[in-house]
Write a structure and sequence with these properties.
Length: 150
């Protein structure tokens, strides 16, 4: 009888592993969803790694394993709120709309103040808050943006 040897069993991390924050976990999950969506749109097969991961996650969820664990979105701290990712997505959509609607090269461009009011009515914030989000120093202010990247 031979014993299988796992070459990785003796390895231990020599450097501390950085915990990934919840917003990054949610961003990664969103990126995977976008990848699945694009593969369907262009009739391309899923990457084998993604397909394997998704199958395992869904089977584990069906067998009663916590979906947050299976999808790697379990908060690092108990009670951690998932709203920051939703807020980031809304901000990116809002800024994308403002950039597109105020583009002077387009015939239907509007003034920034009007764009702030329009976005405020949609997202349920004041136009002042929308303007502050637009003016934040770490904000992308372009028509093109990614929801799956910082």
């Amino acid at each position: 009888m031979t014993k299988e040897i796992n070459p990785w069993s003796g390895l231990q991390a020599k450097v501390p592993i950085k915990k990934v924050g919840l917003i990054d976990k949610l961003r990664n999950l969103y990126a995977l969803a976008e990848e699945i969506e694009l593969s369907n749109k262009y009739d391309e097969p899923l990457r084998p790694e993604l397909s394997t991961w998704l199958v395992a996650a869904l089977k584990n969820i069906a067998c009663g394993v916590d979906p947050e664990v299976c999808l790697n979105i379990k908060p690092n701290k108990p009670g951690q709120n998932k709203n920051p990712f939703l807020i980031e997505m809304q901000r990116k959509h809002a800024n994308g709309f403002i950039a597109a609607s105020t583009n002077k090269t387009k015939t239907a461009s509007i003034k920034q103040k009007e764009a702030f009011k329009t976005v405020a009515g949609i997202v349920g914030k004041s136009s002042t808050t929308v303007r502050k989000d637009w003016n934040a120093k770490d904000t992308d202010r372009g028509e093109d943006y990614s929801l799956s990247k910082k």
